[in-house]
Specification:
Blueprint (H helix, E strand, L loop, with lengths): L2 E5 L4 H17 L2 E9 L6 E3 L19 H18 L9 E8 L1 H12 L3 E5 L14 H8 L4 E4 L10 E5 L7 H14 L2 E8 L7 H14 L5 E7 L3 H11 L4 E6 L11 H10 L4 E5 L6
Parallel strand pairs: 1-2, 1-5, 2-4, 5-6, 7-8, 7-10, 8-9, 10-11
Antiparallel strand pairs: 3-4, 6-11
């Protein structure tokens, strides 16, 4: 792992994401790219460096900024980033800060491409009621489209807190790149892997058949330190969240893959729902973005 992106909006959740990223960077030697996005009406995203504002109150990018409020906001955000980076706990880490102009999702997407990031760690507020919705949130868009693994978290989590990872899947058509990422994450957290198949009324399977399939999957993919579970629930997304709570898992890991291959379990909406409703950190990986 060489580069970790941490979007920062100065919320408690974002600072929790930075703290976890810092622990991971300390262990792996990865660089952290800390980005803050000032939302702007136009679609394009512009990087604002420390010298982007001229003495005449305009941007060196050529975008005229007559709005004094915007200029003051930029300066205030730059000062807030500097205050964070001056924290002694980050002193020995390689952290680069950026302020970008645009929409949060597009800025993050652009930074992934530009920096060739290996990992995104971001905070999310989530929701507690299944009747609520966060459709269209930045976290959901990143989970849906990011070309590298995304870890979302709601509360402060330390590296050593993650002892049990639930790997939710339909355990068909494994992608080599996803298996590689899965093993990297398991090794990074030095955690026990719990493979779970959520058995639903609409796609009911015999438990013996499921266990046989999961056992073969683990053997074929050379998964170490793992346990197998079958969990019955009315739907996959709630089943994954409830299994995580019932069996006291510390993290969820799953993939997204559109409508083919992993079509049922890896429907985008399922992964996004798990990100929204899980009280534990969730790692997602978009197989649609891979060429493997």
């Amino acid at each position: 792992m060489k580069k970790i992106i941490v979007p920062i909006d100065f919320s408690e959740q974002a600072l929790n994401a930075l703290d976890l990223a810092s622990e991971i960077a300390g262990k792996t030697g990865a660089q952290i790219v800390l980005i803050h996005v000032i939302e702007y009406a136009k679609k394009q995203t512009t990087f604002l460096g420390s010298t982007a504002l001229t003495t005449m109150g305009s941007l060196s990018t050529g975008i005229e900024m007559d709005d004094i409020y915007f200029i003051q906001l930029f300066k205030r955000r730059k000062a807030q980033l500097a205050e964070i980076l001056n924290d002694p706990s980050y002193a020995n880490l390689n952290i680069t800060d950026k302020i970008m102009l645009g929409t949060p999702y597009h800025a993050i997407e652009e930074e992934i491409t530009e920096s060739d990031a290996d990992f995104i760690i971001m905070g999310t507020t989530g929701v507690d009621d299944w009747e609520e919705s966060l459709i269209g949130s930045t976290a959901e868009k990143v989970v849906r489209h990011a070309s590298c693994p995304v870890l979302t978290l709601r509360k402060k989590v330390r590296l050593n807190d993650i002892e049990k990872i639930v790997f939710a899947s339909d355990f068909k058509e494994p992608k080599p790149e996803y298996m590689r990422i899965l093993k990297i994450i398991q090794k990074l957290f030095e955690a026990e892997l719990h493979m779970v198949f959520v058995n639903t009324p609409g796609h009911f399977k015999n438990e013996r058949e499921i266990i046989k399939n999961l056992t073969k999957f683990a053997k074929d993919n050379e998964l170490d330190d793992h346990k197998i579970h079958v969990y019955s629930h009315k739907n996959e997304e709630e089943g994954i969240v409830w299994f995580t709570e019932d069996f006291k898992m510390d993290m969820v890991m799953m993939a997204t893959y559109g409508r083919s291959g992993f079509s049922r379990l890896f429907d985008h909406s399922i992964a996004e729902d798990v990100v929204n409703f899980s009280k534990k950190p969730v790692v997602t990986f978009n197989l649609n973005q891979q060429n493997n």
